[in-house]
């Protein structure tokens, strides 16, 4: 499965089986984590067989079997980079046959900070074998989140379609993408989640549009 295929197949999954992540798969995930940390100056960490991420009441109501997760942490102000790398990790995990869930609010923030060595967490990503494959989230139309000056090129259309597949906090999709020539600008206004959402959406847009076809401005 390619990342592009994973982007279309990945949906939020909150409930997981007790099937363990094999050592070879965990090693691949850790390698991807290391690549992201080194390239973007982050402190992301993968926790395996650790059920401390999600508070008990949330487990009872929403989640089940969340025993593996990425701690999405880095220096203060790294929200966009963490969103971007989080998108990469979720889609990469999907290519390995795993399911994911980005948790931006209902997680053990203090514990996540301690386990990441004191870095600032912006969320966790549950990862494992889902009880289901999830369902597509409700989505806005391309016209509602984008505009282009002139005839719209295919790469821009494909980028916007991919951006609409990105997970965003509270599923608000509170972003606007504007294209002109070979440049694209993104505005995102989702409160404290704006930075993370921007990174998540940018990664998806690049995957759909092809980074070689445009530049961010």
Key phrases:
four-stranded mixed beta sheet; 19% strand; 217 residues; NADH Oxidase; four-stranded antiparallel beta sheet; TM1586_NiRdase
Structure, briefly:
This protein is α/β, with parallel strands linked by helices and about 220 residues long. It has eight helices and eight strands. It has two domains: about 130 residues, NADH Oxidase, CATH 3.40.109.10; about 70 residues, NADH Oxidase (3-Layer(aba) Sandwich).
Please tell me about this protein's structure:
Residues 3-209 form the Putative nitroreductase TM1586 domain. This is Nitroreductase family protein. By secondary structure, the chain is of the alpha/beta class. The protein has two domains: 3-128, 3-Layer(aba) Sandwich (NADH Oxidase), CATH 3.40.109; 142-212, NADH Oxidase (3-Layer(aba) Sandwich), CATH 3.40.109.30. Helix content is 39%, strand content 19%. It has eight helices and eight strands; from the N terminus they run H-H-E-H-E-H-E-H-E-H-E-H-E-E-H-E. The chain has helices at 3-9, 23-40, 56-61, 79-95, 109-115, 142-145, 154-163, 194-209, and strands at 45-47, 69-74, 99-103, 120-128, 146-149, 175-180, 183-188, 215-216. Strands 1-2-4-3 form a four-stranded antiparallel β-sheet, sandwiched between helices. A four-stranded mixed β-sheet has the order 5-6-7-8. A hairpin with a 2-residue loop joins strand 6 and strand 7 (183-188). Helix 2 (23-40) runs antiparallel to helix 4 (79-95) and helix 7 (154-163) crosses helix 8 (194-209). The longest helix is centred in the N-terminal third of the chain and has 18 residues, at 23-40. The model has no long low-confidence stretch (mean pLDDT 95).
């Amino acid at each position: 499965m390619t990342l592009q295929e994973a982007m279309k197949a990945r949906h939020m999954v909150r409930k997981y089986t007790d099937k363990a992540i094999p050592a070879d798969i965990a090693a691949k995930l850790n390698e991807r984590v290391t690549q992201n940390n080194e390239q973007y100056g982050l402190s992301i960490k993968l926790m395996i067989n650790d059920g401390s991420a999600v508070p008990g009441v949330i487990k009872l109501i929403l989640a089940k079997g969340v025993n593996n997760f990425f701690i999405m942490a880095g220096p203060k102000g790294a929200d966009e980079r963490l969103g971007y790398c989080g998108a990469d990790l979720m889609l990469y995990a999907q290519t390995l046959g795993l399911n994911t869930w980005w948790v931006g609010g209902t997680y053990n923030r203090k514990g996540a900070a301690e386990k990441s060595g004191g870095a600032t967490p912006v969320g966790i990503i549950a990862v494992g074998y889902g009880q289901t494959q999830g369902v597509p989230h409700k989505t806005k139309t391309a016209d509602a989140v984008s505009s282009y000056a002139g005839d719209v090129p295919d790469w821009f259309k494909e980028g916007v379609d991919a951006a609409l597949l990105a997970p965003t906090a509270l599923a608000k999709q509170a972003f606007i993408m504007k294209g002109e020539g070979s440049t694209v600008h993104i505005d995102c206004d989702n409160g404290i989640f704006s930075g993370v959402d921007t990174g998540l959406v940018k990664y998806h847009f690049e995957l759909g549009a092809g980074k070689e076809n445009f530049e961010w401005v």
